[in-house]
Specification:
binds 2-acetamido-2-deoxy-beta-D-glucopyranose; Peroxidases_AS; 338 residues; Peroxidase, domain 2; two-stranded antiparallel sheet; binds protoporphyrin IX containing FE; heme; Haem_peroxidase; iron; Peroxidase, domain 1; pyrrolidone carboxylic acid; mainly alpha
Length: 338
């Protein structure tokens, strides 16, 4: 009797948790139609101005959305098809990345993967202030990141897609989780596949999303080991990269992730991998005799296949357990909790 009562209790508590949890909240593309009809046009305009000023900003903004979505622990009651009831630490697109250090906030900007690397925060501030000027307190910073990433891709010749909206902003951040949850350039193929799979993304999604490295720059410290000690690297390419990335010093010296067309979103990133000219070890690992070789080869031959998969994967990534409904808040400034 006592046991069955306890069971009933457990089920009741579990049900309450499940129904109050916002983890299953749905995003919709027309979320701001009534509350801020000019939101998307306003974001788009400010993003385009920023990229026109500095082309690399397109890359930096896409990366911010990625680094936002992959981080932020939150206990959430998850009902999946395979495992009916399971507690998971959810991580999601909640603008946690944008919070600065504060008495109760340990900023994710200082996580190894972001420190002196994640950039574009001033552009996000600028976009946010323009949106606040037309509809104060309505549009979340998390949604701004999602829209900016889409607009950035389109501006530099990449695919476009319909962005789903309705994310809310977190009131917390976690530097430790960021370090734990974000991929590292030293990760093996298995580690990358499993990290993305923790977020409900397939190996194919992972390869497509890595194609974002068709634009943007990386610092010497992230590819030094590969260009001096790597085995799976084109010798001429390694020599060229060594010129501006000495074996000691120059950690911050930049090189393009795609040596052919660093400012245009195209399939050259994958063509480079076929020639062992991936800059990061974690890029080349996608084409190194493992299970993802065929996907890389396909994308290198077929831009529309890459674009279609990239767009779909960005939408899936943007869907990673967002805060919705009454969870979280709409920050007034993306850098601080209200
Ligand atoms: C698969 C695992 C990934 C790893 C290990 C990785 C790692 C890195 C590293 C080390 C850099 C250079 C950072 C620096 O030196 O400052 C970088 C840059 C970049 N990453 Fe990734 N990345 C991954 C996936 C992704 C994904 C999924 C996206 C977006 C969808 C992305 C977008 C970018 C962009 C656009 C840049 C250039 C940023 C800029 O120029 O400001 N990366 N990444
Ligand atoms: C390229 O990919 C698209 C979209 O997946 C597909 O419809 C098309 O047949 C492919 N083209 C070639 C030449 O394989």
């Amino acid at each position: 009797m006592a046991t069955s009562l306890r069971l009933v209790c457990f089920v009741a508590v579990a049900w309450l948790l499940a129904s109050s949890s916002q983890c299953q909240g749905q995003l919709t593309s027309d979320f701001y139609h009534a509350t801020c009809p000019r939101a998307l046009a306003t974001i788009r305009k400010a993003v385009r101005v920023a990229i026109a000023r500095e082309r690399r900003m397109a890359a930096s903004l896409i990366r911010l959305h990625f680094h936002d979505c992959f981080v932020q622990a939150r206990l959430c009651f998850h009902i999946s098809h395979r495992i009916p009831y399971k507690f998971i630490l959810s991580i999601g697109c909640d603008a946690s990345l944008l919070l600065d250090n504060a008495p109760t906030i340990v900023s994710e900007k200082n996580a190894i993967q972001n420190f002196r690397s994640a950039r574009g925060f001033e552009v996000v501030d600028e976009v946010k202030s323009r949106v606040e000027a037309i509809c104060p307190g309505v549009v979340s910073c998390a949604d701004i990141l999602a829209v900016a990433a889409r607009d950035a891709s389109e501006y530099v010749g990449g695919p476009k897609w319909t962005v789903k909206l309705g994310r809310r902003d977190s009131t917390t951040a976690s530097k430790d989780r960021a370090e734990n949850d974000l991929p590292k350039f030293t990760d093996s193929l298995d580690q990358l596949i499993s990290l993305f799979s923790d977020n409900g993304l397939s190996a194919r999604d992972m390869v497509a999303l890595s194609g974002a490295h068709t634009i943007g720059q990386a610092a010497c410290v992230t590819f030094r080991e590969r260009i001096y000690d790597g085995t799976n690297i084109d010798a001429g390419f390694a020599k060229t990269r060594q010129r501006r990335c000495p074996s000691v010093g120059g950690n911050g010296n930049l090189a393009p992730l795609d040596l052919v067309t660093p400012n245009s979103f195209d399939e050259n990133f994958f063509k480079n991998l076929l020639q062992k000219k991936g800059l990061l070890a974690s890029d080349q690992v996608l084409f190194s005799g493992g299970s993802t070789d065929a996907i890389v080869a396909e994308y290198s031959r077929n831009r529309s296949s890459f674009f279609r998969d990239f767009a779909a994967a960005m939408v899936r990534m943007g869907d990673i357990l967002p805060l919705t409904g009454t969870s979280g808040q709409i920050r007034g400034s993306c850098r601080v909790v209200n």
